[in-house]
Amino acid sequence: MNNKLINHLKKLLIKNNYLDLNTFLDVILYDKQFGFYNSINRQKNELIGKEGHFITAPEISQLFGELVGIWILQLCRENHFHNINLLELGPGKGTLMRDILRIFSQQKENIKIKIHLLEFSKVLKSYQKENLKQYGHELKWYNNIFKIKDQLNDNPTIIISNEFFDCLPINQYKFYKTKNIYTKKIVRLDKNNFFFDEKVLEPQDIPFISNIIKKDFDKLNEETTIEHSPFVLSHINQICDIILENKGANLLIDYGKNDPYGDTLQSVFKNERSNLFNKIGESDYSSLVDFSNIEQIVENKNLQYYQLKTQREFLLEMGINKRIENLSLNANEFERRDLLSGYERLISKRQMGDIFKVNCFSDKNLFVPIFKL
Ligand code: SAH
What we know:
Blueprint: H1 3-16, E1 19-20, H2 21-30, H3 57-60, H4 62-78, E2 83-89, H5 95-105, E3 112-118, H6 122-132, E4 138-142, E5 157-162, E6 171-176, E7 181-190, E8 193-201, H7 207-216, E9 223-228, H8 230-246, E10 248-257, E11 266-269, E12 272-274, E13 284-286, E14 289-290, H9 291-300, E15 304-305, E16 309-310, H10 311-317, H11 320-329, H12 333-347, E17 356-362
Parallel strand pairs: 2-3, 2-5, 3-4, 5-10, 10-14
Antiparallel strand pairs: 1-7, 6-7, 6-9, 7-8, 10-17, 11-12, 11-13, 15-17, 16-17
The structure holds S-adenosyl-L-homocysteine.
């Protein structure tokens, strides 16, 4: 149990009467003293990996990061980029970036890369430093996305992220059709226990939600849950501004869908789902990313949004079959089996292949490999 964090939350609830879900999750994840990302323990290797709470595509197989690297390399070649910023949001252990930089180090051409890393956790920063310093590129860390825009020197900027947006805090709203009532999910405290409650809101207080409801009204059931993340909104807006100022593209891989509907928030402890209030400060929270929301933001900024691909489509189109063949030539029996099982997990429709999506947007004049309008 993370008792200090739980006591801190209780004090906040007594003082404020209630917290909305977004604020509650914000404190759990990011509180400077007691939050989840600041209490990750290096010795116990708690967050990402087979022994941690969850395992991610770059940790499963090098094929993933290498193919993302080849995509970035092709983008640089086609657009004659020789001096770029590469920005990763939430780099975890730094494995994806390491595999990308290895691909670049194997090429003859000299592309100058400045690496920017948005990372909140001190422990994960230390992993990233260890994994990335060998390649000799300039590395810079930030804990707040708003500080990055001024550090890019007008050079084209490629922004990547894997399983970053799914872990940002969200709010949940409910719309009751017949009664025409909107509510927002809040957390309260009763006799020392946390519980969920709903607070009634006026539609004009939440125009982004009431507009969605107006648009889809006929399709909606009697009771509809709608998710919205203020963090996703501010981060995508900021990425758009970075691209508008410097040119470039965003490649975002995450599990998600193309609408804001349903209660998709889950908490995972040691690779198993747990009750939201049971392992506060110890489990990892995530929700499905709503790509239709991202599309809307990108279009409002007048940038180019491309058709979503599944992870399976992305990896197949980037040549995962050829890549595994080549790697297998120099691998021993054990390594070959490992490569094959990773390949299967990444692209199989029953595993990560279909639920994980690859989203891309860019400035309007860019040539972007494999993505279609
Ligand atoms: N991309 C990695 C890790 C995904 S886990 C992988 O695929 O393995 C999410 C990552 O985002 C972690 O590195 C976490 O510390 C970081 N993170 C989460 N919320 C953040 C925030 N608001 N600002 C900066 N980093 C954040």
